[in-house]
Amino acid sequence: MAAAARFWRKIPQRYNLIGTKCSACNKVYFPPRYICPVCRRAGKIEEFKLDGKGELVTYAVIYIAPRGFESQAPYIIGIVELDGGARVTTQIVDCDPKDVEIGMPVKAVFRKVNEDGESGVIYYGYKFTPMR
Amino acid sequence: MKIGIVGYGVYIPHYRIKVEEIARVWGKNPEAIKDGLLIEEKAVPGPDEDTITISVEAARYAVARAGIDPTEIGAIYVGSESHPYSVKPSATTVAEAIGATPALTAADYEFACKAGTAAIQTCMGLVGAKLVKYGVAIGADVSQGAPGDELEYTTAAGGAAYIIGAGDSLIANFEGFFSFTTDTPDFWRRDGQPYPRHGGRFTGKPAYFKHTISAAKGLMEKLGTTPKDYNYIVLHQPNGKFPIRAASELGFNMDQIKTGLLCPKIGNTYSGSSLIGFANVLDKAKPGEKILLVSFGSGAGSDAFSVVVDDSIDQKRNKAPLVSHFLNPCVYIDYAIYAKYKQKFKVATLP
């Protein structure tokens, strides 16, 4: 149950890519930061919704999956540079590992991320898919 | 006051399995099945997709097409017979994911394959009574068919979301609806059971045909219309043959039927079925054209709607992906991958 509460606190980030932005230096933070490490006291942090479009910076194909992800192997984990400026580590779905390419345009989709066993809470959130 | 559709969105998963592949596993003649059911392939959800993820994608596209502020949505209803939870609504996750929370009402609906159109009727009532500005009605499913059962050739995944509102910026408006409902045990799934059961041929005449035809006739009588008044008819599509036969019995021709008939390519998406077909018609219809939409849910009931396309369709149509976007390209999978994605067997977890 502790996991459910921990996940629930992050719903704005997981569902809608809500980060923060320092209006003093225009730097975007995802996951959100509440103090700008560049501007420090002079910074002004505001909520900022990323639009979910971006480019694949790098990736790895996972063949030996951790528990709970065995049935999805092989799958792709990538780092995506979002158009708003932040980078996210994310699963790249609906993409054959042989078709994945660094630099490919991708967009956020809403997917099941994990579940707490057969009777536990299902955790949803963003993953990314090639832009078609 | 005209009540109608402010925006709509569709989502169909990326994966497909062909009738030939399922028939190969069970030693059946694929040509006989394709001819009997008029289906070639069906949409399969990815391993991380369910009714909630499909509903969210469709609803996000509907909001994009409507161009509305999601905080103005006052109600969300998700119709499905494959909600991921028995207790915990799909609608709250959808509401959160489209940015409509917290000032709204939300609930899940279940009426076999017609829960989505029941949701539209509820939203029409709330909008008509000026209790909410916009209501979202969703029909989505990742339907289940037992391995080896003839349902396995058709049970598919997909969904559609409709934002119901009033005023001048409507994509289409409702002239009226008529529902026909009886207690008919043609198809059911008991609580805790993984797969539904059905009455075989009993699902036809006393169930699908009686209810769809009665609802459509009831509506046309109520409005004083005839099949000639409609440019399109869209029916629920448990297979490719039933809707063609029902529409023909009502007096419609193939030109009126074909645009809304998607089952041969995507299968029966249950609560999404008639609503995805309806979206494909809206993708192509011109202002002033008239559509007869008829859903069917086992158990059993049909909702028939008479819809007139409005001027805003041309301005809003391309603000979100069309149905054709989801039809091609797609990835074909074999039965083993299909069984894995649909969790038809248990995966061993080593300590």
Describe the fold and architecture.
The complex is a heterodimer of chains A (132) and B (351). With 132 residues, chain A is mainly β. Chain A has a domain at 52-130: OB fold (Dihydrolipoamide Acetyltransferase, E2P) (Beta Barrel). Chain A contains 2 helices and 8 strands, in the order ααββββββββ. Chain A is globular and about 50 Å long. The mean pLDDT of chain A is 94. Chain B is built from 13 helices and 14 strands. Chain B folds into 2 domains: 3-171 and 317-341, Peroxisomal Thiolase, Chain A, domain 1; 172-313, Peroxisomal Thiolase, Chain A, domain 1 (3-Layer(aba) Sandwich). Chain B is α/β, with parallel strands linked by helices and 351 residues long. Chain B is globular. The interface between A and B is medium-sized, with 21 and 24 residues.
**In sequence order, what are the helices and strands of chain A, one letter per element?**
HHEEEEEEEE
Supply Rg of chain B. 19 Å
Going by CATH, the architecture of the largest domain in chain B would be 3-Layer(aba) Sandwich
The biggest beta sheet of chain B, please? 9 strands, mixed
Q: Counting H and I runs of at least 4 residues, what is the number of helices of chain A?
A: 2
Overall geometric form of chain A: globular
Structural class of chain A: mainly beta
The most extensive interface, with participating residues per chain, is: A-B, 21 and 24 residues
The largest beta-sheet of chain A arranges its strands as 6-5-4-7-8
Which strand-content bin applies to the residues of chain A? Answer: 35-45%
How many discrete structural domains of chain B?
2
User: CATH topology of the largest domain in chain B, what is it called?
Assistant: Peroxisomal Thiolase, Chain A, domain 1
